[in-house]
Amino acid sequence: MPNLRRGPGHMPGTALPGQVGNVVLSGHRTTYGAPFNRWDELSAGDEVVLETQDGWFTYTLTGSQVVAPSAVDVVLPVPGQPGAAPVEPLLTMTTCEPEYSAAERMIVSGRLTSSRPRAEGPPPGL
Fold first, then answer.
1. Domain chopping of the chain, boundaries
2. Using DSSP, how many helices (H) and how many strands (E) does the chain show?
3. Is residue 5 predicted with pLDDT exceeding 80?
4. Alpha-carbon distances of 35 from 6, 38, 78, 107, rounded to whole Å
5. Which of 15, 49, 57, 60 is most buried by its number of CB atoms within 10 A?
6. Domain 23-80+91-115 has CATH 3.40.30.10
7. Residue 70, Cβ neighbours under 10 Å: how many?
8. DSSP of 89-126, one letter per residue?
9. Listing from the earlier edge strand, what are the strands of the sheet with 89-97?
10. How confident is the model at residue 31 (pLDDT cuts 50, 70, 90)?
11. Per-residue model confidence as pLDDT tens digits over 50-105
């Protein structure tokens, strides 16, 4: 994804924030502004809020894992389940692991727990 030089990017063909399926975002950890630099500090229960032109979508993180770059099943509509039909809105964020290396990928996963239309303003606490 060459556009990652400008910041985190949405993987084409994956769900959009708030949709049923898997929203997949990728970002650099140490270069191009390092938007995912502190990703290893995230843990289950933390919240990530995605802002779009339609509103705000809050995903509660469910966990993380480190995988080989060839482990593309993490970006499927239902991660790890080829051919399965999605039934809930999920989030998968990917970055390189370890820091300063592209040997593996850190995967942070979550589930949509709330959404808020843009007309209502940002969620409390933002």
1. 23-80+91-115
2. 0, 6
3. no
4. 10, 8, 25, 14
5. 57
6. no
7. 7
8. EEEEEEEEESTT--SEEEEEEEEEEEEEEGGG-SPTT-
9. 9-10, 21-26, 89-97, 104-117, 55-67, 47-51
10. low
11. 999 999 999 999 999 999 999 999 999 999 999 999 999 999 999 988 877 888 99
How much is the pTM? 0.90
What pLDDT does residue 9 have?
A: 84
- Tokens 């390189």 label which residue? 96
By the 8 A CB rule, do 22 and 74 touch?
A: no
Task: Look up residue 59 and give its two tokens.
Answer: 């995903």
pLDDT for 120 = 94
Nearest to 112 by CA among 87, 84, 79: 87
